[in-house]
Design goal:
By secondary structure, this protein is mostly beta strands. The protein is about 0% helix and about 60% strand. The chain contains no helices and 13 strands. The protein has strands at about 1-5, 10-15, 20-25, 30-40, 45-50, 55-60, 65-70, 75-80, 90-100, 100-105, 105-110, 110-115, 120-125. The strands form three sheets. Strands 2, 4, 5, 6, 9, 12 and 13 form a seven-stranded mixed sheet that branches. A four-stranded antiparallel sheet has the order 1-3-8-7, with no helix packed on it. A two-stranded antiparallel ribbon has the order 10-11. A hairpin with a 4-residue loop joins strand 5 (about 45-50) and strand 6 (about 55-60). The protein is elongated, with a radius of gyration of 15 Å.
């Protein structure tokens, strides 16, 4: 029901900035929360930041104060502004969308987690 496409990854020097984008399409009305996860080689996937439909946000301690998550509902796009990047931020970043169950006139949604294909972020020292 929902398709996610990430963009904006690349190579940047330590201390630099990148802005990731995640374009959502399909049944976007079903989305309750969206977030960014990352996975480095040999490590488990971890939550970086999340935002609910009500605007509540949550950040991993390692990125708090440096990253900012936001949504543009008109464009159905999720963003992650990453500042003061560190080499340990190097990972594949994945966009996630949590669909909420809805059964109403003209709307039907199933509870499900959707994932994008990921975008590589590499921070050099």
């Amino acid at each position: 029901q929902v398709q996610l496409v990430e963009s904006g990854g690349g190579l940047v020097q330590a201390g630099g900035s990148l802005r990731l984008s995640c374009a959502a399409s399909g049944d976007t009305i079903c989305i309750y929360a969206m977030g960014w996860y990352r996975q480095a080689p040999g490590k488990e996937r971890e939550l970086v930041a999340a935002i609910t439909s009500g605007g509540s946000t949550n950040y991993a301690d390692s990125v708090k104060g440096r990253f900012a998550i936001s949504r543009d509902n008109a464009k159905n796009t999720l963003y992650l502004q990453m500042n003061s990047l560190k080499p340990e931020d190097t990972a594949v970043y994945y966009c996630n969308a949590e669909a909420r169950p809805i059964n109403a006139v003209g709307v039907h949604c199933s509870a499900y987690d959707y994932w994008g294909q990921g975008t590589q972020v590499t921070v050099s020292s």
